[in-house]
Amino acid sequence: MKLKLLYSDLKPELDMIEKELEQAVDSESLLLNDASLHLLQAGGKRIRPVFVLLAGKFGNYNIDVMKQVAVPLELIHMASLVHDDVIDDSEVRRGKPTVKAEWNNSVAMYTGDFILARALEYISEIDSPKLHHILSKTMIEVCRGEIIQIEDKYKLDQNLRDYLRRIKRKTALLISSSCELGALVSGTDEKTAAHLRRFGYFIGMSFQIIDDILDFTSTDEELGKPAGSDFIQGNITLPILCARKNPEVYSLLKNNLGKELTEPERLHIVKTIRDSTAIDEAKAISERYLQKALEELAYLPKGNANKTMRKIAFFIGKRKF
Length: 321
Hints:
By secondary structure, this protein is mainly alpha-helical. 74% of the residues lie in helices and 1% in strands. The protein has a two-stranded antiparallel sheet. The mean pLDDT is 93.
C-alpha cells in the first residue's frame, strides 16, 4: 500500500495546500520561479502538512487557518533540502537533478533562502507569539543539526548519541513541531498538544532511521540516487554504526570513507552492510521509537485522526521504501 492512500480523506485539503505552495514560491524572477518549482514539482510525501492537518482534527479544524501552518512547515522542509544538496554536493534528488546540479550553488542557496523567507511570511499571518516562538526555536535547532552533521562527517568512531542528536534536529523536531503547531492553531488544550508533539518526535526519529536503512536496502532506481549515498557523502548513519562492530567491516569502511569510490567498491560496501546484522539492529531501534509514538496516541481521543496517525506510524516503521 502507498503512504498517500492512508490519508486519502485529506486529498481535497492537500490539493489546496499544493496550490498554496506553488503560489508561495511565485516571484517576479523567472529564474527563482523555475528553481523553486523544480523541487516542488519533483513531488514528496508532504508528511509535515499531513501531520499539521491531522493534529488540527483534535481541535476546531478550519482549513483556512490550518494551511497557514501547513504551508510554511513544508516550505521550511523544502528549503532545507535545497541547502542540503549544496552541502552534500548531491546531483540527484527524487530521481531528478538537484537545484544545484540544474543551475549552480549560488542559485540553490538563494532559492533555499527565498523559500525559507516565504515560510516566515506565511506564518506571520497567524497572530500568536507562542506559535512563532515554537517555530523559530525549531528552525534554530534544524540549523544546529545541519552544522553538527557537517562536524560529524567522516567520523566513523562517533557514538550512537551523536547520531541520535543529529537526526533529532535534522528530522524529528520539524515533524514534532508540525504536530504541535497543528494542535495549537486549532485550539486544543495544552495536554493534547504535548502528546501530539511527543508523537511527532518519536515518529520522526523512527522515520529518519528507516530512511537511513533504506539508503542501503533499496535499489538505485527506488531511491532516485545511488544506494549508499550517505556513506559516499561521509554521513555516518545508524546502519554504519551497527555494522562497524565487526572488525572486518570496520576496516572496509575506514579504508573507503572519504575516498572516491569506483562502482564495484560502492556496490561491495552496500552489499556488505545490507547482508550484515546491522539492518536488523537498526530496525530494532526504530521499532522502539515507533512503540513510544503509539503510546502517545493512546492518550489522545479516539477517532479518525487518531486512527490515521496510527496507520501512518505503522507504515513509516515498516515501510520497504
